[in-house]
């Protein structure tokens, strides 16, 4: 429970501010160009520092790092809630991301080293997978409720009591098995290269939304980030104490799990992004109603992770869950490519949410269990950080890539159809009416959603292919109640 609550706080904080952003912009007089930094400052610090946070957890102790992350996250949240200038809010969000980069890998590595075998491990990862998949939707719900009934500042203040309660639980219940002895040195070159490359790529994706993928700054950041990561990989094979030991990512099953996580999150973030716009802008839902509309996907993720994946992981190979999960999620996304402009929550959105949620529940839990299985305890933190990095970078790429596809498609559709509608109105001896213009614009926006979500469905299928081909591990052998080496006649022992 302690680990799950901490992870929930980290995941939902990436989206809880989204619905509150218009209110914060008005209160702090942010420009349209600068408002994105409320989101970008968090994702840059979080995504860029995860590998460093994971290695610090291995060196300094997972419990100590976990508790430090909680205290820092609470302090940064309080600072952001009390901010009276946009610059102070941006700084607080960056601090939140930095402490989240300590907290998230510590949480997953504590889970990995605490629950090692059998049904308890499957149950623990089922709960953790439900949090990882459903946290984004929970953030939208919480953001809507807090913004509408309290104030946008409570989207940040709410972390303080949660973090303090979790801190008390961590002190009482968590244990760290880190061995006391000589500590390996921190790989400073690896920190600079790896974190620099990740920050560059995440920042490029955030700038790709307003600037476009062909912008020189975006291309320069992407090329620079890839180059830094290439040098990072070269250095990790030669460093005496590497930040990310290459055997972690060279393992076929672990590498396949990392790849599937990144691809699935790219596709998933497209759904959350476009459904938020569809419900609020096209259908006119309030923030609270929009948040509540995401409840079914959260419930489906929880059910898929805890009631299906957790019960079957010890009986079937992980890919027997991952591949059907990807197919279900891709089917749900494909259903959204038929969204009409008219209200269609029950006929289109609800079935799609249930399919996507169930599919993600079948994906996230076995992916995380496979990625962290069989790792040496002294590498558990950095392995957990790599899982989180795949999730974070996938979210950044998915948001930027699919949003670019949607906006460019919508712009082309709207321009062409407005021209046709204006010509038809002129031929009839009249002018283009506001009602016709509004219909064309809404239809064009939804058409852009169709195309982008279609790409998301294709990426989800690619995730399923990656999991099916690369993840070949078998379910663990179930030990007999008396152990594998029970002596003859042991069945008669009391």
Question: How would you portray this structure in words?
Answer:
Its main location: membrane. One of its GO terms (biological process) is response to antibiotic. One of its GO terms (cellular component) is plasma membrane. Residues 1-475 form the Major facilitator superfamily (MFS) profile domain. The structure is a single chain. By secondary structure, the protein is mainly alpha-helical. It folds into 3 domains: 1-175, MFS general substrate transporter like domains (Growth Hormone, Chain: A, Up-down Bundle); 187-240; 243-474, MFS general substrate transporter like domains (Growth Hormone, Chain: A). It is built from 18 helices and no strands. The chain has helices at residues 2-12, 16-28, 37-60, 62-81, 86-114, 118-149, 154-157, 159-173, 188-211, 216-236, 246-250, 252-282, 287-293, 295-312, 319-336, 345-371, 380-427, 434-470. The chain is globular. The two termini are 36 Å apart.
């Amino acid at each position: 429970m302690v680990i799950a609550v901490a992870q929930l706080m980290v995941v939902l904080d990436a989206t809880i501010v989204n619905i509150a952003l218009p209110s914060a912009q008005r209160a702090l007089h942010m420009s349209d160009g600068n408002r994105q930094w409320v989101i970008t400052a968090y994702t840059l610090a979080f995504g860029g520092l995860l590998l460093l946070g994971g290695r610090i957890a291995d060196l300094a102790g997972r419990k100590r790092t976990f508790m430090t992350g909680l205290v820092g996250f609470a302090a940064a949240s309080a600072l952001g809630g009390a901010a009276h200038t946009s610059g102070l809010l941006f700084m607080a969000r960056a601090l939140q991301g930095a402490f989240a980069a300590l907290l998230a890998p510590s949480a997953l590595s504590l889970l990995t080293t605490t629950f090692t075998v059998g049904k308890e491990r499957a149950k623990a990862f089922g709960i953790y997978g439900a949090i990882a998949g459903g946290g984004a939707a929970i953030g939208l719900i919480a953001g809507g409720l807090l913004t509408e009934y309290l104030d946008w500042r409570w989207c940040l203040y709410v972390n303080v009591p949660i973090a303090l309660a979790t801190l008390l639980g961590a002190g009482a219940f968590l244990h760290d098995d880190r061995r006391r002895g000589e500590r390996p040195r921190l790989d400073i070159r690896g920190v600079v290269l790896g974190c620099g490359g990740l920050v560059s790529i995440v920042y490029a994706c955030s700038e790709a939304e307003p600037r476009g993928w062909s912008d020189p700054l975006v291309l320069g950041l992407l090329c620079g980030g890839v180059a830094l990561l290439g040098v990072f990989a070269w250095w990790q094979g030669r460093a005496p104490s590497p930040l990310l030991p290459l055997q972690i990512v060279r393992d076929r099953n672990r590498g396949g799990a990392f790849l599937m996580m990144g691809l699935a999150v790219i596709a998933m973030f497209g759904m959350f992004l476009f459904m938020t716009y569809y419900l609020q802008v096209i259908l006119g839902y309030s923030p609270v109603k929009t948040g509540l509309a995401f409840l079914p996907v959260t419930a489906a993720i929880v059910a898929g992770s805890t009631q299906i994946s957790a019960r079957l992981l010890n009986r079937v190979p992980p890919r027997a869950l991952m591949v059907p999960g990807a197919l279900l999620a891709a089917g749900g996304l494909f259903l959204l490519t038929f969204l009409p402009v008219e209200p269609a929550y029950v006929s289109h959105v609800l079935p799609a949410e249930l399919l996507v949620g169930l599919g993600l529940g079948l994906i996230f839990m076995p992916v995380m269990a496979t990625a962290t299985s069989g790792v040496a305890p002294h590498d558990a933190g950095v392995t957990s950080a790599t899982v989180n990095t795949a999730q974070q970078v996938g979210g950044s790429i998915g948001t930027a890539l699919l949003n670019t596809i949607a906006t460019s498609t919508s712009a082309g559709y709207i321009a062409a159809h407005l021209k046709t509608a204006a010509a038809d109105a002129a031929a009839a001896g009249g002018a283009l009416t506001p009602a016709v213009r509004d219909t064309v614009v809404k239809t064009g926006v939804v058409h852009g959603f169709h195309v982008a979500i279609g790409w998301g469905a294709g990426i989800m299928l690619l995730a399923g292919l990656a999991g099916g081909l690369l993840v070949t591990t078998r379910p663990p052998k179930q030990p007999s109640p008396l152990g594998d080496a029970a002596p003859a006649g042991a069945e008669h022992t009391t």
